[in-house]
Every structure is written in structure tokens, then in C-alpha cells.
Write a structure and sequence with these properties.
Blueprint (H helix, E strand, L loop, with lengths): L16 H9 L5 E4 L5 H12 L2 E4 L3 H8 L11 H10 L3 E4 L3 H5 L2 E4 L4 E2 L5 E2 L1 H12 L6 E4 L7 H14 L7 E4 L9 H8 L2 E5 L2 H14 L4 E3 L3 H26 L2 H4 L3 H8 L22 H6 L7 H11 L1 H15 L8 E5 L15 H10 L3 E5 L12 E2 L12 E4 L24 E4 L12 E4 L3 E2 L2
Helix pairs in contact: 2-4, 2-8, 6-7, 10-14, 15-16
């Protein structure tokens, strides 16, 4: 199992730690990164700038061709374009769409999508397929690192058995570690390089040691080594469900705004001056690739229920309906109806500055408005395609040219700060528009618009 001569592998190697670090940084230890998506390509680049010997593997031949040409198909990541071009030019990074990466690498880093199916059960089919590919090229001394989010016990109960079955090797001849990505869109390189420490959990002590050696070279904040791979899997999920539950609390409190006649956002901000209180901001819902899905990774297959997680999901998933109902109420207070109104939805991506629509609350808000009989228009400065939304797209620069009855702000992009709210054309004899501000980002004082802010209530 030991490969001290030349140090081309890290797991089970009895060379000194310093010699192994030198070998890793010097490119003697070939690395394969499986999955070159929005997080995989930045990770492959971060590995390559440290060790100079990375092959990225992806099933999409167009992605492979793009990377091999020194191009970056992942947008909105500062510094990634130039880094990929430089690494490819220096032969530090290449790409392939076949299984050759597994045969040549000794560190295998897997960062592929893990989704949930229609019944909210985790779908590990992509991960399982890639693990099978890795196993067919697995050699003694290889280390397999899983970065994609998975249910607890996946490494022990899914990854290791598949590697053993397909490779003919036994655990101990190879290593497995779970080292979750802790990155956000728009700051991937910054996060990978060391905005936070890297979490490492090994299936055995040697796996943890080898993975720690790799990530200490990549992450300037260092490594937090936890007890085992299952603990590391849980850490990643706990980070996400904390936010989901906390946002659900904020959203539920925001629903009390009218009954209590209180500015809930002011109350939250003031409560948070106490060091043991950290309530998040309310809003029109929770989107993204992570937070809306992580609770189901914990809930699936468990002997015990998770009523808090289930309730948090229900509260957050219910916020788009709450937004639509508030708009209906505000129209009713003016003696008009949402049915037949023309409403503009501002912002369709799941968060500002990120051109992604995964689980965006804008989707169910648009659908709810349409179901209520409204004519729905939409705009987002980051999107070129609007096919997933049942609404008529309008350019941001043209929103004031369309006579409207109402506006719902879902995602507060910077481009919306240039909108002249005094320039909107009105339909009928209404003095102003009916506006729902989902993010407390609008200042419409001095305008005739009737505005309701989630968590603050109606502007008077």
C-alpha cells in the first residue's frame, strides 16, 4: 500500500509529512476533480493553483471543451476567468469527459449535484455513478474526497461499499474523507481559499490525515478535523438547517406585524443587540441550491420525526402565498381587486447579484399572481431567459413605460435603485401603485404609492 518512492499518493504513505506536503505542492500527486459546475470548477482551479496537476472530469463535453480551451463557463465568480486561463496555459489544469481521470489520479475529489426527488427524498444517483467510475480506476493508496452535500452516513454506507465492490480493494487500501464545500455563489474562490476553515472528516484516521494535508495547502484558515466522516456530513447540513429555521422564525414573526401593530424588523434589529439573539431577516421566501433542500437530507430515512425542520420548511414555502395575499388585501383596502390587475415582479433570481433561479420564491409568487387573475410582468437585470416564469418579461429600463396597478419586489438587485418611482404610468383613476416590498429595500416616501413592507407593514 505504501508508495514512498516519488510520493505519488498520500494515503498510507510512510514518508514524512513534510515530504508529502512537498510532493503535493510539487505536482507529484495527481488530482482529479469530478464535476466542473459552479462550485466544481472553482474547486478544481484552487487545487490546480496549489499543486499544478489537476484533471477536471465532467459529463458535459461542452464544459470539457470550454475548460480545455482556457475558458470559464461559470459566470459571476471574481477572478475565476483569469485563473482558469492561466492554469490551462501552464498545463496545471486540464479537462476530460471520460473515465481516464480515475485511472491516473491518486486524489479523487467528487463535487457533483445531489438533489431531492419529487417525494423529497435525496437522489444520490449522480454521486453513485461517479463513485463507480472512480472505483474502476482506484489504486492502493488513493484517497477519495467527497465535497458534495449528502445525507449523514453516505460515505460509510454508500461510498465505501461501492468503492470496495467496483475496485476489488478493501477500505484501508484506499481512504475516504468527507470535506464539504462551504462556498457561496459569487465568492467561491474567496471561500475555498480561506474565508472559513475547511471541515475534514475521515472514514478512518489515515483518511483524515491525508485530506487534512491537502486542504491545509489550499485553505489559509486551516482545517477543522472532526471525529469522522458522518460528523462532517452532519456539520454541513446543520449549517444550512440553522439558517432555514432561523429565517422561518423571522418570517413567522413578520406575519404578526399587522396583528401586533408593530414594526417587526425594528423589533428584531433591537433584539439582536443582545449577544445571545441573532434573528435573521424576514422575506418573501427562501431559495437557492442549498437551504430549501438540506432539511430533507436529514429527515429522509430517520427513525425519529423532525417537526421543527418540517415546520420551518412549511413556513418558508408559505411566504410566497403570504405575499400574494398581502397584495390582494392592499388592493381590497383601496376598493379594487387583484383579479384583472397588472402587476410587475421585480427580481427573479433567488438572491441579489447571482444569476441563478434555483427554488426562487419569485416562481410561486408569479404563479400565485397568475392564479389570482392578475396579468404578470417581470424583470431581472441578470437573466436572459424567462421561460420558467409565467410572466411577460420587461427590461429594467422600460418598467416605467408600462401602465401598472401593482409591483412586488422579490430580489433587490442594485439595478433597481435607478428606477424612478415617480415616473410610473397609472392605470385607471388610482393615484399610485400598490407595492409589496419583500426585502425592505425601497424608499417610496414622498410618492403616492401604497406600500406594504414584509415585517414592517403598511407605510403611512
Amino acid at each position: 500500500m505504501s508508495r514512498t518512492a516519488g510520493v505519488t499518493a498520500l494515503y498510507g504513505n510512510n514518508a514524512t509529512a513534510e515530504r508529502q506536503r512537498e510532493a503535493f505542492r510539487g505536482g507529484e500527486v495527481p488530482v482529479a476533480v469530478y464535476g466542473l459546475g459552479k462550485m466544481g470548477l472553482p474547486l478544481a482551479a484552487a487545487y490546480a493553483e496549489v499543486c499544478g496537476n489537476v484533471t477536471g472530469a465532467d459529463a458535459d463535453s461542452k464544459v470539457v471543451a470550454s475548460v480545455d480551451a482556457g475558458e470559464c463557463h461559470v459566470g459571476g465568480e471574481p477572478g475565476l476567468d483569469d485563473l482558469v486561463a492561466d492554469l490551462v496555459a501552464r498545463d496545471a489544469l486540464s479537462a476530460t469527459d471520460n473515465r481516464s481521470a480515475a485511472a491516473t489520479a491518486s486524489v479523487h475529489v467528487v463535487i457533483v449535484p445531489t438533489r431531492i426527488d419529487a417525494g423529497n427524498a435525496p437522489d444520490l444517483s449522480i454521486l453513485e455513478s461517479v463513485i463507480d467510475d472512480v472505483a474502476r480506476g482506484l489504486d492502493p493508496g488513493d484517497l477519495v474526497v467527497v465535497e458534495c452535500t449528502v445525507p449523514p452516513k453516505t460515505c460509510r454506507e454508500v461510498v465505501v461499499p461501492r468503492l470496495e465492490r467496483e475496485s476489488g480493494l478493501a477500505l484501508g487500501e484506499f481512504g475516504v474523507a468527507f470535506c464539504p464545500e462551504r462556498t457561496s455563489s459569487g465568492r467561491a474562490l474567496e471561500d475555498i481559499r480561506g474565508a472559513y476553515p475547511k471541515i475534514v472528516g475521515g472514514i478512518d484516521d489515515e483518511s483524515a490525515r491525508a485530506a487534512t494535508l491537502c486542504y491545509e495547502a489550499i485553505n489559509a484558515k486551516g482545517v477543522i478535523e472532526v471525529s469522522d466522516a458522518t460528523t462532517a456530513e452532519a456539520v454541513k447540513l446543520f449549517e444550512g438547517v440553522y439558517r432555514d429555521v432561523n429565517i422561518a422564525l423571522a418570517n413567522e414573526l413578520a406575519r404578526f406585524t399587522d396583528d401586533l401593530a408593530v414594526d417587526v424588523r425594528e423589533a428584531i434589529d433591537t433584539a439582536n443587540t443582545q449577544p445571545f439573539c441573532d434573528i435573521h431577516d424576514p422575506g418573501p421566501g427562501v431559495g437557492g441550491h442549498c437551504i430549501p433542500y438540506y432539511p430533507y437530507f436529514l429527515l429522509d430515512g430517520r427513525d425519529r420525526d423532525g417537526p421543527l425542520l418540517e415546520t420551518a420548511r412549511a413556513v418558508n414555502d408559505g411566504m410566497p402565498d403570504f405575499v400574494v395575499e398581502k397584495l390582494r388585501e392592499e388592493f381590497g383596502a383601496e376598493g379594487s381587486a387583484l383579479d384583472g390587475a397588472r402587476v410587475l415582479v421585480l427580481g427573479l433570481t433567488y438572491r441579489p447579484g447571482v444569476a441563478e433561479t434555483a427554488a426562487t420564491p419569485a416562481g410561486p409568487i408569479v404563479d400565485g399572481l397568475s392564479s389570482a387573475g392578475a396579468e404578470v410582468l417581470c424583470t431581472d437585470p441578470l437573466l436572459d431567459e424567462y421561460d420558467e416564469f409565467d410572466a411577460t418579461p420587461v427590461a429594467v429600463a422600460d418598467v416605467t413605460d408600462r401602465p401598472l396597478d401593482g409591483v412586488v419586489l422579490v430580489t433587490p438587485h442594485e439595478a433597481f435603485e435607478t428606477i424612478d418611482w415617480s415616473a410610473f404610468e397609472r392605470r385607471g383613476d388610482r393615484d399610485g401603485l400598490v407595492v409589496i416590498d419583500g426585502r425592505d429595500s425601497l424608499d417610496l416616501s414622498g410618492t403616492p404609492h401604497r406600500t406594504y413592507t414584509i415585517g414592517r407593514g403598511r407605510d403611512v
